Amino acid sequence: MTLQPPPPAHLDTETFTLRTWSAADAPTLSEVLAASDAHLRAWTPWVVDGRIPGLSLGERLERHAHAFESGSEWVYGMFSPDGREVLGGCGLYPRVGDGAIEIGYWLSVHHTGRGLATAAAAALTRVAFASSNIERIEIHCARDNVASGRVPHRLGYHIQEHAAGTDEESNESMVVWVMTRAQYGA
Predict the structure, then answer these.
(1) 59-89 confidence digits (pLDDT tens)
(2) Cα(129)–Cα(137) distance, rounded to whole angstroms?
(3) Terminal CA-to-CA distance of the chain, rounded, Å?
């Protein structure tokens, strides 16, 4: 599935910039991942380890950039406004069915509790619904990850289901939050 129009490669907000990753971001991202290892490993170990074992961080970022360009998924780095600091990452993933897309997000341990994930998910919600072929957006999070669950709640998403073992990376009990185009427009 492609998004029409395709998402922009660069989005500025009041507090951060979202842009596509590049291999040049690997050293800075590596430092953030090392500092945030325990924080991220608790809920999103694939952010630290990568979904494809054996790739260097630079290779992983190159794959994200290629996937963005080819329109298979849209993964952004979240940077300070001056572009020097990695605050986290987020993305749009077309893995939840026709006419639907999933939003994912993570933050550096040093940047939690400031509303950044909510602002990033709000920006990606706008981008996704700007696409004429998206009717539903999902956000999946572990039921016990209360902070992550606050993000879709604040944005007006509704719980669709609680499901055991739906996370592809673990057997965590997951909560699936959903917003439809009609709910977004209301």
Answers:
(1) 999 999 999 999 999 999 999 999 999 999 9
(2) 8
(3) 26
